[in-house]
Specification:
75 residues; single chain; alpha+beta; 3 strands
Length: 75
């Protein structure tokens, strides 16, 4: 698998593109748009994207520190 910068990519072919089901229920399965491999349920994919967006909003130093905020008294 080729490593995707965003952390998303089909485990079979590395493509970041997904094919969405006609009915977007949390249980509906999404597929890789390139090779057709079943990836995961729509609900799980949404949670993964939301978690990635939250991580992207934090700075690299904050991610390394586990999200801890500096103590104002030590400043």
């Amino acid at each position: 698998m080729s490593e995707m910068r965003s952390g998303f990519g089909c485990e079979s072919c590395g493509s970041p593109a997904v094919r969405l089901p006609a009915a977007l229920t949390d249980e509906a399965m999404i597929q890789c748009d390139r090779c057709g491999c079943t990836l995961m349920a729509w609900g799980a994919f949404k949670r993964r994207v939301e978690a990635q967006e939250a991580a992207d909003l934090r700075g690299p130093a904050e991610r390394r520190a586990g999200g801890a905020q500096p103590d104002a008294r030590s400043a």
